[in-house]
Amino acid sequence: MDLAEKQAGVYQLFDRILANHALKHAYLFEGLSGVGKLEMSRYIAKRRFCPNQDQGQPCQVCPTCLRIDQGQHPDVIEIAPEGKGRSIRVDRVRQVKDALSKSGVESQKKMIILNQADKMTPSAANSLLKFLEDPAGDVTIFLLVASRQNLLPTIVSRCQVIQFAKQDLKTRIMDLVEAGLSQEEAHLASHLTQDLDLAKSLIEEDDLLSVSQKIWQWFSYLVNRNDLAFILVQRDLMVYIQDRDDCQMVCDLILYLFQDLIHLHYHLDSPACFVGHESDLRYFMDRLSIKQVSYAMQATLQAKREVDHNVASQAVLEGLTLDLQESIG
């Protein structure tokens, strides 16, 4: 599915904006990973920089278009989280601001794309805010986020917010199966991302299937009041966790497991994340109350917040395990 189909509303909006030369200086693209935020930003860049346009559309094959697609055009600067903490630090934002104070390398126009802008450190966010308050020259900045809630309200207020539509879950699963994933892999990956390449990476590089099996075993221990749940965190789960993103993925899978229980209890027609475990889910739901499952989801959300605040992953998951052993075990 190409960009014009995947995000028809946003695509048509920017077609009109660009045709009328009405591009603003700052946009906030909000939507889940894989919905096309980065792709749309690069498309807009190609509309502005491609020298071989046909009826307003970039050629997609010239050196300019190819460099933009590869994130290597000198006047289209892309920033993403980096380093051990996977954050956008203030020195990186300052480097970009310094580059913006100089003339463009190939034209007078410049574009900045901040991917996962919600991963900016507080000092980086404040530095960016100063630029947004007083933009200079022909510069357009795109902030790409999953949710605006994780950005300073003062930054959001200085951007035009564009909401990207979420792709239907059943459609995502079918697309992943057609791309070669098994049903079990497709159900797991489709709950975590809308991006096909990232879904494949989760399966092939992050061993998503094995992680989900360990989480299922952990949950079974919890419900059956088996103390091995705590030991499993250190012995088995931590093997797959190298950084905060890995720990967030584990927490997300735990959340989706509890969500599967809720959907089963209320007979909701929504594809399960842990497909193939329906009979076991019914068994567990018979042993748990809705109140207990709701509490478990709130506790897992709190664990995700702790990960965001740099609490050690093992401490977060062990704390969550102890909490749930007491509340649902």
From TrEMBL:
One of its GO terms (molecular function) is DNA-directed DNA polymerase activity. One of its GO terms (biological process) is DNA-templated DNA replication. It holds the Pfam family DNA_pol3_delta2. This is DNA polymerase III, delta' subunit.
